[in-house]
Amino acid sequence: MPEPIVELFERSGALLRGHFILSSGLHSREYFQCALVLQYADLAAQICGELAAKLRDVACDSVISPALGGIIVGQEVARHLGKRHIFAEKENGKLVLRRGFTIRSGERFLVAEDVVTRGGKVQETIDIVKQNGGSVVAVGSIVDRSGEHRPNFGCRFESLVRLNVEAFSPDQLPPDLVSIPAVKPGSK
Questions:
Q1: Looking at CB atoms within 10 Å, which of 47, 91, 153, 166 has the fewest?
Q2: What's this model's pTM, rounded to 2 decimal places?
Q3: Would residue 183 count as lying in a domain?
């Protein structure tokens, strides 16, 4: 049986503990730096293969992911599903399609991401697909850390690990986090 995902994260140093500022602007005691586990091609293939297996029954034409964290996830999920993969990336602070990527009218997409907290980048990616005439039939992430605030993307949302990790607004930090310098380890 494959090693549980959280154990892979801990063993590879991808599950960090301390005081972190998430891309959502929230603060947390834990941070999932997926790049530290996905840097190993065999682990990336295993983890993303498990995510692809959960989504194999989804009728999609292509996979799209938000840069930067979702690129490896999207590529591997697409490879396992035998689909094309494209990605959206930041330009002037906003996700856009570049590099000649196109979306055909009616094309059905699966959005693949590494970690979802509030789902902002996933929603931006969904909006890009819709604005270009496509549709999103499912979202898949390795880690869903949204807890009780699970986003509604208007389609199926699957993850390999669903964790209820505490996250705090900057003006409501608990005393233990106030005493630790905040780190913003994300991909920005």
A1: 91
A2: 0.88
A3: no
